[in-house]
Specification:
single chain, 63% helix, mainly alpha
């Protein structure tokens, strides 16, 4: 059971593409360039980055589900997690 759960978590993380979240940190750039680095701003920016990252992941998942039939025919995209039936 533990192995199954670990595999499910791994598959979900791959589908969410957390490696793409790094670029969402650019949301914090205005705070740094405006020299408005305060505790409150850091909390707000962190929440903004987190919410934006989850929204971006939702779009990735929606797109993967929507395009799964077409992607199965593509030579590279057919290797994807959802397209391969994992």
């Amino acid at each position: 059971m533990k192995k199954f759960i670990a595999i499910m978590i791994k598959n979900i993380l791959i589908l969410l593409r957390p490696h793409q979240w790094v670029k969402n940190a650019f949301i914090a750039a205005p705070m740094f360039f405006a020299f408005q680095i305060t505790y409150d701003n850091i909390i707000k920016i962190s929440l903004g980055i987190g919410i934006f990252s989850l929204c971006a992941s939702a779009v990735y998942v929606f797109n993967d589900i929507h395009d799964v039939k077409e992607d199965r025919q593509h030579p590279e995209k057919k290797k994807g997690h959802l397209q391969a039936g994992r």
